Amino acid sequence: PAGAQKTRARDLLRKHYGLGVGPPAPLHGKGVADPMDLDSTAFDAKAYYEQLITTSSLPTLIRKENELLNDIRELDSERQSLVYNHHHELIAASDTIAAMKARAENLDAEMDLLKAAFSEISRLSAEVAVE
């Protein structure tokens, strides 16, 4: 059930942003099942770390750290932007609903006046028809 809700929520977000429904496409043509691919659903952090630490030099590790920090900052910025945009849309929707409610309340009073006017017209029409 929790997995189904998560999938449904992801699909609704993908549909909202025009990305299509279903699992996300692999990034940059990379394999989906590669445990060494950071973007893979099968990514194995421990194996990636062990492979990186044993085969890379210190400058390569420092460069990789900088790349990962930049990626993290970029993703965090994108997340904040999405949250802000959704928050902005929520506030705009709330304002729209409040405006519609105010207009509807004004319409109720006008509809009551119109109803009374039609009742009076009907009464006068019936009175004229009898005479």
Secondary structure: elements and pairs:
Elements: H1 2-16, H2 45-55, H3 58-130
Coiled coil: 90-117
Protein name: Vacuolar protein sorting-associated protein 51 homolog
Organism: Phlebiopsis gigantea (strain 11061_1 CR5-6) (White-rot fungus)
Largest sheet composition: none
Number of helices: 3
Oligomer: single chain
Shape: rod-shaped
Strand content: under 5%
Radius of gyration: 31 Å
List segments where confidence is low: pLDDT < 50 over at least 5 consecutive residues. none
The averaged pLDDT comes out at 83
Helix content: over 70%
SS-based structural class? mainly alpha
Family: Belongs to the VPS51 family.
Keywords: Coiled coil, Golgi apparatus, Lipid transport, Protein transport, Transport
Subcellular location: Golgi apparatus, trans-Golgi network
Organism: Phlebiopsis gigantea (strain 11061_1 CR5-6)
List its salient traits:
131 residues, mainly alpha, golgi apparatus, lipid transport
What does this structure look like?
Keywords: Coiled coil, Golgi apparatus, Lipid transport, Protein transport, Transport. The model has no long low-confidence stretch (mean pLDDT 83). The protein is built from 3 helices and no strands. It has a domain at 30-100. The longest helix is centred in the C-terminal third of the chain and has 73 residues, at 58-130. The chain is mostly helical and 131 residues long.
